[in-house]
Amino acid sequence: MNYITLLNNQTIGIAAIPEIPYDTFFEINTGFITQHPERHCVNYFGYKIGDAIKLICCIADDDTHQIYVSACVVKRETPLLALTSKLLCFEKFEREIHENFGINFIHHPWLKPLRYAFNRFDTSQTIANYPFYSIKSEELHEVGVGPIHAGVIEPGHFRFICNGEQILHLEIQLGYQHRGIEQLFLDKKELLQRATLAENIAGDTVAGHATAFASLWESLCHFQPSRDLDFARTVAQELERIAIHTGDLSALCADIAYQLGASVFGRLRTPIVNFMQEWGGNRLSKGLIRAGHNPFPFTPALAARLLVVFDAFVADFDEMCKQMFKLPSASSRFERTGVVSHDDVLSINAVGMAARSSGLQRDIRLSHPYGLYPELNHEPVIKRHGDVYSRVQMRKEEIKQSIEYVRKLIASVPHPQPAPSPLQQPQTDAFTITLVEAWRGEICHCAITDAQGELLIYKIKDPSFHNWMALAMAVRNNEISDFPVSNKSFNLSYAGHDL
Amino acid sequence: MLDTLKILYHQGKQFIPNVRTAQVPGIFRGRPLISLQTVDQAALTSLCPMRAITANPVAIDLGKCTFCGACAQQFPDKISFTTDYKIATNQRESLIITAGDDTPLQLNPQMIRPEIRSLFRSSLKLRQVSAGGDNSSEWELNAANNVQFDISRFGIEFVASPRHADGIVITGPITNNMAEALQICYDAVPHPKIIVLVGTDAISGGLFADSPAVNRSFLQNNTVDLYIPGNPAHPLTFINGLLNLIGA
């Protein structure tokens, strides 16, 4: 066998992953995906074993709910034929491996630095001299934006090539937020420190990343979470989706200068995040999700309180949505702006909301369900046009869907398990993969332990890793003045990408 | 038009009338109280993932604390968190709360430069720089500007250009890759100017303090005017901290 088949949250011995020669590795991993839109690469990374580098590739199959994992040991000096030469979806992964280890990939379209990690192979490359694509022409001009942007947001640099007001090309350079978080997962040995790190990967996706870490760790320690743990995590993730989507609708209205929408959606986020504070003491759910136990059990009193919050929210939300969607001045800015086609999102491996807005069904809650999602019979919201309008509609419908799911869940609040059994030591020489569908899309965490059960590698993939390219594609041929609203319609994470 | 008026009517008045006396809902973890009870101090200090708790006497450094509440859950008789959100100060040492200490945090008036109050009391424009911030403090800074917290009613606003700003608000532990951009931005702000640190990561570096990807030399070379703790900082902590600084 050339690969091993795993399920979401499964732990196996690292030796169980077949090590195959690179040409076989190339054939099977490109073969999995070619002509198979239901399959996509959820993680592909390398780590050092002595002088050599071990590559691990994980391909998820949405129909069979399985993950196909294969491995290959290569030498740094040996150039490899890029998987990207056949399929663009590997583009970012290979850039990362090239940046970290110096492996040369032949026929890769651009092996540019990804995030200027502190432990990169070639430290002579610095963030100040990124090799931007440019066109020599008297008709065209370049516009550079960032790293510091006009609003209160994270840093990143956007380089536009424009013909008059029209964007021909956008290149997005990231890395400014790089904090070395994957290395810190190895250096900080305490569970509480690692849980805190997981919450800081992207501070707007706390429930998503904290659930991913907790689930991975519990799998690694052979701990079966009780129902109240799964319940709390599922509810927290859906509430996070409601809160961020509502805040995004506010920001989208602000970007088209629709003050009423910006104010009303902006204030509607508050009761949801304030409920998070009533539950766990933090408006962004920090401190709420921990591996092996539930520090803040969800009580029937909280359920009753949440129903009151929802009733007030829905009335105002529906009224505001109805008004916004019938407003011609809003529709004219949203419709046919920032279009990214189904074929494009498929080829670049876009995930989550961005993929679903262009008609591509990618939703871990359905394809690799975890927590209490199997009981919810989740049906993803799918939009076809791939424009800003689709992503606005997507948010509105996902908010309504999440409210229904949470209402269904809190109708029967599980009793907290009085004293959960303590976590055992992690399995030695093991590999674990965890997938979570956060509000932005698919999160993938992978861990490998050594002979003592210590973490050897902790690999994080945020949905933004792929979706930044979707934004670059979406703004082509748009007026540059429509860039802010397109950007906000994706609302991607800089910290989650840069790690 | 009528529908718009209906929405306005249904929304009513959303703003918090008094941001100094407003109560936060639920179990918000603000200023901690440490009792004089005798506990296993070694167990308590090693429990904290941030090493924010020190022994003899037991003290919590709010500049390092993430307010996760793990200490209060395990030592409920020793440590409790109040809902007092006014925990901003201009003196780094004031962020350290010791056992038996139940006085609200205050600014040290001697350390406030006179020009801050004479120039910025009724108008303060700020440039925000996220330097490795995880976007949680940034969300809450944006929330400070929504119709409920409405910080702009005090003449405090975030502006797009450092040239229009009276100071910078830093979030995040300051990464190597942002260090130069932060310096350029600060240099572009005209004098006199203030520096405000928001969130645990900015104040102490948090869990990232000893990461080789972080470069905090900017803070060694410049004087900080206000520390606003939290993970993320609550909008009311931010607003009250600034109001106390500018004397509004």
Radius of gyration of chain B: 19 Å
Strand residue percentage of chain A: 15-25%
> What order do the strands of the largest sheet of chain A run in, or round the barrel if closed?
1-5-4-3
Shape of chain B: globular
Greatest chain-chain contact: A-B, 68 and 67 residues
**Count of discrete alpha- or pi-helical segments spanning 4 or more residues of chain A:** 17
Uncertain spans of chain A: none
Strand content of chain B is: 5-15%
Low-confidence stretches of chain B: none
Q: CATH class of the largest domain in chain B, please?
A: Alpha Beta
**Beta strand count of chain A:** 13
Quaternary state of this entry equals: heterodimer
CATH C-level of the largest domain in chain A:
Mainly Alpha
CATH fold field value of the largest domain in chain B: Rossmann fold
For the record, the count of structural domains of chain B works out to 2
How would you characterize the overall build of this protein?
The complex is a heterodimer of chains A (499) and B (248). In chain A, 41% of the residues lie in helices and 17% in strands. With 499 residues, chain A is of the alpha+beta class. In chain A, the strands form four sheets. Chain A has a four-stranded antiparallel sheet, covered by helices on one side. Chain A has a four-stranded antiparallel sheet with strand order 2-11-12-13. A three-stranded antiparallel sheet of chain A has the order 8-9-10. In chain A, α5 runs antiparallel to α6. The longest helix of chain A is centred in the middle third of the chain and has 29 residues, at 227-255. Chain A is globular and about 60 Å long. Chain A starts with a strand and ends with a helix. Chain B has helices at 2-11, 41-47, 70-74, 114-120, 136-144, 176-188, 200-204, 217-221, 235-246; strands spanning 32-34, 53-54, 59-61, 79-81, 96-98, 124-130, 156-158, 167-171, 194-198, 226-228. In chain B, α6 (176-188) links the parallel β8 (167-171) and β9. Classes of the chains: A alpha+beta (499), B alpha/beta (248).
